[in-house]
Amino acid sequence: MSSAAITIDMPQHPRAKLEQLDTTSDVMRRNRGIVALTVETPTSSRPPRQPVPTPSPPRWKTPEFLLYGIVFLVVVPLLVKIPVDLSSPTHPNFGMYQHRLSPGWIPGRQVDNSDRQYRSFRSNIPALALLACGHLLFSKAYFLFAPQLLPQRSSNAPSRIPFSLSFSILMLFALHGFSILKILCILSFNYLIGKSLRNTPVAPFATWAFNIAVLFMNEIYDGYRFGDIHGGLEFLDNVKGLHPRWNIGFNITVLRLISFNMDSYWACKNSPKDQGNPEDEKRRASTSHPLSQYTFVNYLAYAIYPPLYIAGPIMTFNNFMWQVRQPLTIPTRSVISYLVRFLGCLLTMELVLHYMYVVAMKDTSAWKGGSPAEISMIGFWNLIIVWLKLLIPWRFFRLWALADGIDAPENMVRCMANNYSANGFWRSWHRSYNLWVVRYIYIPVGGASRAVVSIFLVFTFVALWHDLSFRLLAWGWLVSLFIAPELLARRIFTEKMYGDKAWYRHLCAAGGVFNILLMMIANLIGFVIGTDGMKYLIAELFGTWKGLQFILLVCSCLFVAVHVMFEYRFVYV
User: Fold this and answer.
1) Judging by beta carbons within 10 Å of its beta carbon (0-12, 13-18, 19+), is residue 237 exposed, middle or buried?
2) Cβ(359)–Cβ(112) under 8 Å?
3) Closest CA to 297 of 198, 188, 402
4) Alpha helix (H) ranges present in 356-421?
5) Which DSSP letter does residue 289 get?
6) Kind and range of the H or E run holding 102
7) What secondary structure does DSSP assign to 116-176, as a single string?
8) What is the per-residue pLDDT across 29-50, written as a single tens digit (0 to 9) for each?
9) Residue 430 burial by CB count (10 A; 0-12/13-18/19+): exposed, middle or buried?
10) Residue 381 pLDDT > 50, yes or no?
């Protein structure tokens, strides 16, 4: 069940053969400077590879790319200037959204802290940092004294498990109060399904049916109330914890429940033997453990592991347990480097929120009446903020896990604005979730042999998992639909047949422009302005001569950008 079987990948372009080049060797990393921050994610388990010489020189200094450089020097500042100008207190629409702004820490600037999801994280950064430091401090102390306290450690109870599980229970009680009992009941029932059905054909169906039912029931009953179950239990509702609505983030835990049952199912079916320590993330995820490792204690420790419980990233049970049984060596320098990168991302978000009030504009429809360029920039920067507001929490929690000795998958491995392929975009956006759906949905339902059906099922589940709403369902179906042209084009215009043609890379760039426009439409509908807002935007862009001129200009700029992305992949990635 390795994820290597999936065929969804970056689209072919003239230098696609170089996808296999070594990206970590000194030969390829020489003189990369600041770009190394955008193409490489520190990890403890990157296997060494041999450097491969490049077959042709980069194009950066050719007249074509010097022209592209001039375009970048003109266009990129405009991408920043337009939303900054729209956020000026002297702008006519400022009064429409001013009430949604808050006092900022940058002198003379307010901050757009109106996004509820990111505001929740931003406001709790000090508390989360204190929780992470406390957990790490007690964890280090435990490992220091564990050899003396637990001299006879069995294979069923690795040294990390007792402390991790104890801390998790205390943390969940502090967060959710007596709602921890609801969580443990759901976890226990899921475990009973997996263990009682083992490797029978009905086991996967029962696991999926139960967990999908949990998603719907949590939404319908809003986390349930003890008083609704029995009047005598109503007093339990009074102890709510710091975060009473435990069901809001439980979708992440559901993925772990499915992972455990499916990994256990495949282990029972294949009767694995202990195969030593898998070398990399992919093998850890796909290599089963001896059946003795699929215990209730290990399951609980995995499902509610403190650093990853709140928001992920998502790890498979197999991957988590391999790192528990055979701890990785994560250099302190890598953790510090990752901390610096996290702080850099956090500061970037703060600057954007202090100088571009595009979220408030979006929520109050203050974009109506704007020019096509202004409306497009509000949408574009809203997408950038969506990317940052997800990247920052995910990197915080991954940083916490790395400091604790667990190497969780990196979720965001490429900037949102550095994508020309719909397939590649979804592999680099919420990557741990992508790996999860590949392993547990895409491949089991047919994978590449039934690509259209598989992708449709994947994005239907992804949409419903995010939110049980028509807007997200429409987003999921649009993404499935928009991937189809790319799959078709890759089959017709292959690099093997046309790669030596001078026009081929320009055709690929044109296809990249088309992909980018489709991806922006889907994500604007799903995460920014919805279907009604998109109808208005399309009417403004395609219903006026000025809008059509702007679309032509945008496509030309995106054409240049895609060529730069191609070269960027070739030289640095």
Assistant:
1) middle
2) yes
3) 188
4) 358-363, 372-403
5) P
6) strand 102-103
7) HHHHHHHHTHHHHHHHHHHHHHHHHHHHHHHHHH-SS--TTS-THHHHHHHHHHHHHHHHH
8) 344 444 555 545 545 444 444 4
9) buried
10) yes
pLDDT tens-digit readout, 281-314: 888 998 999 999 999 999 999 999 999 999 989 9
Please give the backbone phi and psi of residue 59, each rounded to the nearest 5 degrees, phi first.
-100, 5
Rounded CA separation 227/466 (Å): 28
Count other C-beta atoms under 10 Å from residue 50's C-beta. Answer: 8
- Helices 372-403 & 504-527 angle (0-180, nearest 10): 80
**DSSP 8-state class, residue 286:** H
Cα 422 to Cα 70: distance, rounded to the nearest angstrom: 27
Rounded Cα distance between 481 and 466, Å, is 19
pTM for this predicted structure: 0.85
Nearest one of 106, 8, 116 to 360, comparing CA atoms? 116
Asked if 115 and 381 touch (Cβ cutoff 8 Å), the reply is no
Residue 515: Cβ within 10 Å count: 25
Tokens of 535: 């109808």
CA–CA distance, 106 with 359 (Å, rounded to integer): 18
Chain segment 163-222, per-residue pLDDT in tens: 999 999 999 999 999 999 999 999 999 999 999 998 899 999 999 999 999 998 998 888
Active site residues: 466
Provide the pLDDT for residue 81: 95
Amino acid of residue 557: C
Question: What φ, ψ does residue 478 adopt, rounded to 5°?
Answer: -65, -45
Give CA–CA dist 200/193, Å, rounded. 11
In the structure, what pLDDT confidence band is assigned to residue 416 with cuts at 50, 70 and 90?
Answer: confident
DSSP state for residue 111 in the 8-state scheme: E
- What is the three-class DSSP state of 201? coil
Rounded Cα–Cα distance for residues 30 and 195 (Å): 52
